[in-house]
Amino acid sequence: MENRDFDSFSAMVNNYFQNDYRERGKVKWQGYFLSDHTSALKRENRKHEQVTQRLPRMSLDKIMHVLIRANANYLYVTVQQDIQDAQGNLLMNSTGMISSINDLGFFIDNDYYEYETIRAVKIEN
Q1: Is there a contact between 51 and 89 (Cβ–Cβ < 8 Å)?
Q2: Backbone torsions φ then ψ of 105, nearest 5 degrees
C-alpha cells in the first residue's frame, strides 16, 4: 500500500470513529456477565427491595434473657436493630449464633451489636 493510500484510508477511519460510530455502552458488555454474577445481582436487588417487618419492641431484660438462653444452649437467634434507613425502613434482620456476650453488647459471628440499638431478639427453630 502506498503512503498516500494509507493516509487516505487513515483519514476515512478517523472520520468514521469521530462522526459515525455509535458506542453501544453497557449493552456491549452484558454478554460477559456470568450467570452466577447475574443471579447474585438479582438476589442483591431483591434484598434491598424487601421491607423488614417490625417485631414487637422488647425490654432490655427480655433481650438479655433470650440472648443468655440462646448462648448457653447454642441456639440461633434473629436480631432486629432499631435503626432505620433514609426511607424509614428498618435494617435487615440478622440471624446467627452468638459467639460472645459482654456488658455493652454481643457478637453474632463477626458482627457486633450494642444492646441500645436492639429492638427485638427471637430464638430460631
Answers
A1: yes
A2: 180, -160
